[in-house]
From TrEMBL:
Transmembrane parts of this sequence: none
Family annotation (SUPFAM superfamilies): FKBP-like
Protein name, per record: peptidylprolyl isomerase
Coiled coil segments of this chain: none
Broadest EC class assigned to this enzyme: isomerase
Lineage top rank: taxon: Bacteria
Record key words, sorted: Isomerase, Rotamase, Signal
Residue ranges of every copy of the PpiC domain listed in the record: 139-238
Keyword Signal among record annotations: yes
Catalytic activity, reaction form: [protein]-peptidylproline (omega=180) = [protein]-peptidylproline (omega=0)
Classification lineage: Bacteria, Pseudomonadati, Pseudomonadota, Gammaproteobacteria, Chromatiales
One MF term in the entry's GO annotations: peptidyl-prolyl cis-trans isomerase activity
Family the entry assigns: Belongs to the PpiC/parvulin rotamase family.
Organism: Marinihelvus fidelis
Length: 310
């Protein structure tokens, strides 16, 4: 504890010295008013980002801007606090010490994980793949053709009536379906796809359309199906069964997953070993804390609840 307090005092003195030397510091990464971020400070902030997300965050200009803005705001607030002598408040110093302890703990836990014996993530990934092959199937898709009676220029009732008449004509003369599409559909994509959609997978279409399409037999027509676009008459042209993805296709994502899970397991095992050490906390100290924060009535109320079993 003495070492921690001494370190904190040294850090406080150093922060004051740095604040006075900001104007001459050539290592400034960003500045706003009295807020300054040095290259070293920003690099340290980057190190706080979990390794598996670090590259994506750095490449994301929006996220990067948010980090810089927050760091500058913290620096500006800290400058004002030091100028006011606010950091000398004993409670503030203890809060700073707790923040420093938490940062040190997080950095140490990450260090322990990175220094642990590496696993053969490629082998682990292949074992997982072989034991869970069904998880790596592409979804079933369907090929469909549809006619849309839209509700943009007509009422819902008018659209439904027209869709019902067209459906009756299609059932009577299925071979005219394509001609009726060109003559009647309100889907603007008909000029490029002739009303057909290939390899439609779950989630590609609005749900009423999707539910009806996947429920059809090949070659069958749906009754008019209402969606937010209007009424669809759908023909199922083909079902395309899902295919097994090869291990090589999914290897990169599985290796990353195995690495992440292994590191998380190492960290949890280490934290668990610390948590299993004896806890030294007396009822008297706990009660004194409750009284200190909430007054004696809080302890008396807790005792009554315990006695009544409520």
């Amino acid at each position: 504890m003495r070492v921690t307090i001494s370190l904190l005092v040294a850090l406080l003195a150093l922060s004051q010295t740095v604040s006075m030397a900001w104007a001459e510091d050539d290592d400034v990464f960003a500045r706003r008013g009295n807020g300054v971020i040095t290259h070293e400070e920003f690099d340290a902030r980057v190190e706080q980002i979990p390794p598996e997300y670090r590259n994506n965050v750095i490449r994301d200009k929006g996220r990067l801007r948010q980090i810089i803005q927050k760091m500058l705001m913290n620096s500006q607030l800290a400058f004002d606090a030091r100028e006011d002598g606010f950091e000398a408040d004993p409670v503030v110093q203890l809060r700073m010490q707790l923040a420093a302890e938490e940062e040190l703990a997080n950095a140490w836990a990450e260090h322990v994980v990175l220094q642990s014996d590496p696993a053969d993530y490629s082998v682990m990934a292949e074992e997982y793949y072989q034991g869970n092959r069904s998880m790596f199937m592409t979804p079933e898709t369907v090929d469909v053709t549809h006619l849309l009676v839209g509700t943009g220029d007509r009422t819902d009732g008018e659209a439904r009536e027209k869709a019902d008449l067209l459906y009756a004509e299609i059932i009577a003369q299925p071979d005219r379906f394509q001609a009726l599409i060109f003559e009647n559909t309100d889907d603007p994509s008909v000029s490029t796809n002739e009303g057909s959609f290939k390899n439609v997978k779950p989630g590609d279409m609005v749900k009423p359309f999707e539910d009806a399409a996947f429920a059809l037999e090949v070659g069958a027509f749906s009754e008019p199906v209402k969606s937010r676009f209007g009424y669809h008459i759908i023909r199922l042209d083909a079902r395309n069964p899902g295919k097994q993805r090869s291990f090589e296709d999914v290897r990169p994502q599985l290796v990353n997953r195995m690495r992440k899970e292994h590191r998380e397991r190492v960290k949890n095992e280490y934290l668990s070993s610390l948590q299993h050490q004896p806890l030294e906390l007396t009822e008297e100290d706990l009660e004194a804390m409750v009284i200190r924060h909430f007054g004696p009535d809080a302890v008396e109320g807790a005792g009554q609840e315990k006695e009544t079993g409520e």
